[in-house]
Amino acid sequence: METKLGKILEIIKVNKKKVLVTSLIVSIILATLISILVIFVGNEVCTLLIIPDVEKQTGYFDGYNLYVVEKRSKIDYKTLNRSLIICDMNGTIIFNRNLSSESALANFNTEFINSTTLIFGDINGVNLWNIETDEVVSLGIYGHHDYEFNPANNTYFTFSTYFVEDNGTEYIFDRIQEYNLNAEVVWTLDTSDFVSTDDWCPYEDKEGDRADVTHSNSIIYDDREDVIYINMRNTNTFYKIDHKTGNLIWALGEHGNFTLYDINGKEKDILFYHGHALEMIGHNSFIYFDNDEHNQTDYQNRRSRILEIEIDEDTMTAYTTWEWIAPLEYFSAWWGDADRLPNSNRLGCFGTIDHPQTDIGARLVEINGTGDIVWELNYNRTGDYSYGIYQVERIRFSPLIEVIPSIIHDFEETACINWKTWYNFRNKYDFNGNYSVILNGNVTNSSFFIFERFWNPTYFETNISLLEKGNHTLTIVVEDEGGHQTSQNVSIAIITTIPKITKLMEDSSSRPKIIFAITLVSLSNDRKLKLRFWKKSKYG
Known about the structure:
The strands form nine sheets. Strands 11, 12, 13, 14, 15 and 16 form a six-stranded mixed sheet that branches. By secondary structure, this protein is mainly beta. Helices cover about 5% and strands about 50% of the residues. The chain is globular. The protein has two helices and 42 strands.
């Protein structure tokens, strides 16, 4: 047991040897040489994947896409194979791991838990995969739909099912279980403690012959409050639970205790139907995939959507602050995901194997703030086959840096440059980082910091020495906890001379503040940003 525990800890330990770069280069070369992947099944050769169709517009967030895709027969709906994929924005496969075709796709959820290691489900339960060393270890933990890492205790949450008999009817409920690295249950909570059989969907959802009351599909652990959020598809409600006591704090949805408002400020009895992928995007702020299945106001509505919800725990009100209602041909009765990206675009997974009025199977879309699709990846239904995706994550392999386009220069004082950085992916807990600011080859500032959570930006205001007329090179370097670096080079040309100004007033606050006319060229990977700033004098 100790040997296995040591192996697990070694797997999740971040690796600073930068072998990821080599892996990426080799994978990209192989991917460009292979248009169709094949695997041998018995004596047959069956196509594992087709290359998806990708459409791009300006304004999408550049990165990579992590998901599990399965291939199904359109004749008998049998799952033929599955693969865990990391692809670029063109659909080119960077990493690929074949998975079992047994069990349900929803149990094969995956996400990164640090800069080198991702968690994924398989027929063998919960696994950890270090993509730099290519080591995989099975934790011996079995559950369904979601696997949530608790960094405070180095434990994992998941769901299991159990049955409750009431008046001759057998009902399915979910049990929330927390496991340590020895696959021992250290905490558990039965959802029938706070959910009634009366909450069963009026459309009578079933798994086999049993009444499926809860059908839980999302777990969030917030270590700052020591609370758990879970989403139940079939009750159209998500719940906040005190991890220490196991007590229900509140519920939001059809069976909740919040007053609900739609995007137009109209009060609603039910805000969403049979949704998935509850995620936090800030304090008391959530993003959610509303499948719109079993809509109790209009069963034929069938308009899946992405929505963001802001809650007030003092007034017990919940407001829809943003939504994107997908066209009918994106409708997904089950599965689905929604994430908010660093540029405020939203990423959605409309992943079912078929949709109304189209021959397209799984669909991944990125939508900007005004509701325009700026990137889309589609798996077309070909021949006798279709493709499904349960959820998707947008990721990077190193932090993101953005220089805010303004430099303020105080006469006889220092210049100030504002910039921000994001972690590599949608981080749900704290990650350490460090940065260095280099001006004309000399390090002027460096420090450790903690990345903001939920892929929100961490802001910096860095003072640099007085800039003289001429050309200057500024480099910002950010490193994650695993040693993966991103640098941003900024060429600064001071084209306005500093005026020789004598003392105008006795008060030092009267010194002129000048924003110099500069040309700023920001270089990061393949992107360039050219901005022009105009001279402005202000006497304070």
